[in-house]
Design goal:
2 domains; 4-stranded antiparallel beta sheet; 11 helices; 408 residues; Aminopeptidase; 15 strands; single chain; alpha+beta
């Protein structure tokens, strides 16, 4: 019987798409859109992910003979941007002690704080064989960081079951929180509101009515039907909003968005907000102008991704400030879609507490870390234990202020 070995791929295209997606598939046969081969390939082909941007691909493969037993996205990083599980304090501590924190190894989806499988393992393996795969991965990564001068390796936004596997092999565990909407078998948006206290229900209805009175056209467009002008308008919204918030135009380029629209359109929808130019304050020519109705143009948008069970809202952007429009586009439209399609969960992004009164529940998110420097490893281990207790207390407090009526 051939021994298990670990190899690394310098590009996702070195691994056949059908093999990668088959290993990453869930029990229902679906693949999280962000771990699809097509998504990762678009990041690399568009040069959003490359050595120049500080993300050097070196995807991990577990092989036995010619057979791939497991895969995991992996990058060598020269910074901590675009990760959303923040280790800036760790990097600063290294710097204060004149120790290099970069480069480091990272298993994550670039620029995307979405939970999902990070390790795709062949489902026909026995329990002992599966355990051997996990052991081989952790052992190889631990050796690699010490041998090749990486300060650490990190696996971010993985499911609890995978985090437990890494923890059982000695990796440090860390938890954080996000706010996700859960579909408790609602039959309609009104049914969802009926589960809330009266005051919270009225607040949401007022927010939605305010937007409805503006006469905006808000609609989902399947990726196959999005025009070049609409992609351009979406990208303009994305860049402008990123610039206002972060001082740069975002990590992703238009070539990336167009690539995933072509390669995985069945999992992507563009939500656009169209306004009548006659009624709009800003009537300048726009790339978002609707050619079928030249008086209509896109003033805001968001990109939505779908799996068998989840809806993901991403990349909100707006050209005009309209009070309450963000809540409608990024939350209420997504909730309605989940109810109609019978999806279990709506992940509307990483940000926080303002989602709670709108029915988003706090959940734990997981990451694992291995630190090469013994003293720093001990310090970070102590920190993550304290942080874990704080995060769980925070989740308990947030759960107490959810807008739902008490059962019974």
């Amino acid at each position: 019987m051939n021994e298990i070995r670990i190899e690394f791929a310098s590009a996702i295209t070195c691994i056949p798409a059908d093999e990668w997606n088959a290993l990453m598939a869930d029990k229902l046969g679906g693949v999280n859109p962000f771990t699809r081969h097509e998504y990762l390939a678009a990041l690399e082909a568009s040069n959003c992910v490359c050595s120049k941007t500080g993300w050097t691909p070196m995807h991990l493969m577990v092989l036995q003979g010619d057979r791939r037993l497991a895969v995991m996205p992996l990058y060598a990083k020269t910074h901590s941007y675009g990760e959303y599980v923040f280790d800036w304090a760790w990097a600063e501590a290294y710097e204060r002690n004149n120790i290099e924190y970069y480069p480091k190894l990272l298993s994550a989806i670039p620029f995307t704080p979405v939970a999902g499988s990070r390790v795709g393992i062949c489902t026909t393996l026995s329990v002992n064989e599966t355990d051997s795969v996990w052991s081989a991965m952790v052992s190889k990564l631990s050796i690699l960081i010490k041998r090749d001068g990486y300060s650490s390796w990190h696996c971010l936004f993985l499911p609890q079951c995978e985090s437990t596997q890494f923890s059982n092999k000695g990796a440090l565990a860390r938890i954080g929180t996000q706010f996700h909407w859960k579909n408790h078998h609602y039959q309609s948006f009104d049914g969802f509101l009926a589960s809330m206290h009266s005051r919270k229900r009225k607040t949401i209805r007022k927010e939605r009515e305010r937007i409805a009175q503006l006469g905006l056209n808000i609609r989902f467009i399947n990726a196959k039907e999005v025009t070049q002008a609409q992609w351009q308008a979406f990208y303009q919204c994305y860049q402008m909003t990123y610039a206002k918030r972060s001082g740069h135009y975002g990590y992703l380029n238009l070539a990336f968005f167009k690539a995933i629209a072509l390669s995985m359109p069945e999992q992507i929808m563009l939500l656009v907000v169209e306004a009548n130019d006659i009624d709009s304050i800003n009537v300048e020519e726009s790339e978002g102008k609707n050619r079928e109705n030249p008086l209509t143009r896109i003033i805001a948008s968001a990109l939505y991704f779908q799996s068998n069970t989840h809806l993901y809202g991403r990349y909100w952007g707006a050209l005009e400030r309209v009070e309450g429009l963000h809540f409608e586009v990024c939350y209420y439209q997504g909730i309605e879609y989940c109810i109609k399609q019978g999806l279990d969960t709506f992940d509307a992004g990483a940000q926080g507490e303002h989602k709670v009164p709108r029915g988003f529940e706090p959940i734990e998110i997981y990451s694992n870390h291995e630190i090469a420097h013994p003293a720093f490893r001990d310090a970070i281990d102590s920190f993550t234990l304290q942080e874990c207790a704080q995060v769980r207390r925070y989740i308990q407090e947030m759960s107490k202020v959810l807008p739902f009526k008490s059962e019974g």
